[in-house]
Give the backbone structure.
Amino acid sequence: MTTAKIDRRYLLMMAIGLFILLVILYPLWQVFFRSFVDAGVFSLKSYRKVFSYPSYYRALFNSLWVSAATGALCMLLGTLLAFLVVRTDLPLKKTLRSLLVLPYALPSFFAAIAWIQLLGPQGYLARIFFHFSGWDTAPWNIYSAGGIVFVLTVHYFILVFITVAGALERMDASLEEAARGSGANTFQIMSKITLPLVLPAILAGGLLAFIGALANFGIPALLGMRARFFVLTTSIYYALAIPDFGLATALSSMLVLVALVSMAFQFGIQKGESKYTVISGKAVHPSELKLRAIKYPLFFGTTLLVFFISIIPIFSMFLTALFHYWGAPLAAANLTLGNFVYILKLEAGRRAIVNSILLAALAATITMFVGVVVSYMHVKAKLTGSRMLDFFATIPYAVPHTVMAIAMILAWAKPPLSLYGTLWIILAAYLAIYLPFAVRTTHATLQQVHDSLEEAARVSGAKLFPRLRDIILPLARPGMIAGWILVFMPALRELTVSILLYTHRTETIGVVVYNMQDAGYREIAAALASIVMVLLIVGNVVIRKLTGGVTGF
Amino acid sequence: MEKIRIVNLSKRYGKVIAAHAVSLAVEDKEFFSLLGPSGCGKSTVLRCVAGLEEPSEGEIYIGGTRVNSTADGINVPTELRPIGMVFQNYAVWPHMTVHDNVAYPLKLKKLAKGTIKTQLKDALYTVGLERLADRFPSQLSGGEQQRVALARALIKEPEVLLLDEPLSNLDAKLREQMRFELKDLQRRTGIPILYVTHDQSEALAMSDRLAVMNAGHIIQVGAPAEIYTHPANRFVADFIGLMNFVPGRILARSGEEATVEFLGSHRLNVIDRSDLSGECVVAVRPEDISLSQTGPIRCRVEVRNYSGHLIDFKVRADGAVLRVQTPKTAIYQEGEELGFTIERAMLFAVRESSSEWIGPVDGKPFAT
């Protein structure tokens, strides 16, 4: 009896282990392995190819400088805004803060589309500019490296903002007061005391933005490919279109390497930061800097900025969706709901919506199930081997999604078991990329359920399944629903993996929006994107209600 | 009949030994406490009995059934052991009403609805919760949640009840009250209890017998009065109640009587069945010292603390500071020069409290 029960838990763990092996480890191994193989033998040919053709090594170089520039600009913008919002007496700080987070809730390729609508040759802002300046060409070009860095920065600066705002909030105000007591003026305090203390947070946030920019596909794809400006992710896409798997896997391995190194740095900085005992978890309200004369100019500037990066793009998307045709003059006669009707009547559009909802729901359900089991084994049952399972399940966190898609093709698009052309291969990729999120949320949720609550159930006579059913799962439910939505929402509008894995009949919403935009049907793309945006915003509100309303058990 | 028997139980976590060769037995209807400082291994022993931890070595019997044997590879899972348990934080399930919490063990047994209803009524009545059956735990006080946990532990009519510091989260007043209630409950139901606590007054007050533990070892097992008056070694003497320790020297020994010199050149005849000689430690309880104007050992009152039912003094005598407790009527003031006599003292070996463990000394000293 004893042994049977233990076997059952290990059996469950072995099943999950097999799942992780098939969906994560084996595919990723294929990428790494294939980059070193040519015609069945070990070879560095693929890597040699990368470094002998300018178009490939330039992609590596482009990826690095675009991401570095993005990281640097994000640090500047994020730190400045965090400082204004946390440490000064700027009016309406809370509202500004929640508006700043808004763009990140939307997919990055939506941002790219919105900024094309705004700053592109026929863009709304461009047209306003022409009107007032009398010029007929813009001094900027959104389809360029500069455009890419701009949109990446607008999308990722929030990562720096959040880490720096957190550090500023946790900083002990007495440190600055001590400096003030020693006779330092405000500028000296900021530059000598405050800035050095939050520097680790700035760097850590900057690296997060760097990693995000490095792995991003949608923005460089929509803005760069037209200008023949390639980065690693778009080169991989291109290499797959040839198709040249050796090249794709070599580029992928390099992309993973850069991501891993940056992540190790970022981890190191955050670990180092915790050594600063002065930034403690204690909520000591830091003093507010009085802005005095520059208060309203700064407020005006910040509001304008927030308006531009958070509200205008969303507004632009809705507006575009309502136009009869892209570029039409703004007049009531040119507005219509026809684009929404069109996309819902279009077979590919309907199919994409059904596919995406199906895939997202399956991905959310399966990853949450696996996440709960992995977390339960690790956090509650503390079985031997569960730590390793947990680690393997979080590996994809460090893998850019483009690479995950290639991994699926290499692993599961060949005989005897070819899933290529089915929804299953897309599902497998979704499972891999969202599993780390599921594991992390279930971890946190289960940690809030005190061990003794489960032990009391055991003492009451409840075996594994009754106590999961009656105690653990009901107590973890709010966190799990939030976790489910947290996987469902990004999966619903996923682009990077789907664009590499879809075929006719397995389109997803992301693919259709991208293809419509790419083919010039911008108002149709905007209509579908608008529908998704409404869903995403509603989902975000639901999550906030769920996680804010329930405090730990 | 023994309801719990633990034989040579050891539990190791890596290199840390939490429990070392623990053996003990709890009789039927007995209130048995495991007492010791935090980290002494008492909770580990309890959790092994509950099956929540697996022993590294040893055997455990509950109600005559062997539930653990490392030699024979037996480890009956918690859910199949005939036990009830109350946790330190009560572990009342927040998503279930009082009714559902208490009825859960019966529901798992798949009993008929009618049976569940009558048993539930009884259980809630036993702990005085009849009126709160439909409340959720968040609407209950700490004391009420504790009763829910007790009712839930009792309802499956277990062979034994395991209590893991159940009173430590209650406020002081309620804690005192619950001591009586717990003991009363045990007398009424007759269920044997294994009780874990770090609070010595709790253990003394409630237990029929108790085991004092330190660093994974059981140091002494006995009735509360026995442990208080005859602590097996210096650790127990120090841990249970208050104790003054004064360095001394054994001058002479004749039969079971030893003559000790301490506090300068004061001498005391002590009954001592040990074979101690030379340097020793004289241990005296604060209530075994009587202050008077004329007492032979001279001292000076340094601090006087009035605490209602008694008065607590700190007196200095020949370089040593002693704690003395007198009835509330004592009139001595701070700074006063007094004397005292010692009614009762014990002898302990010197090295014992240091890192070197020399084991219990069988000393049964009485002052003359």
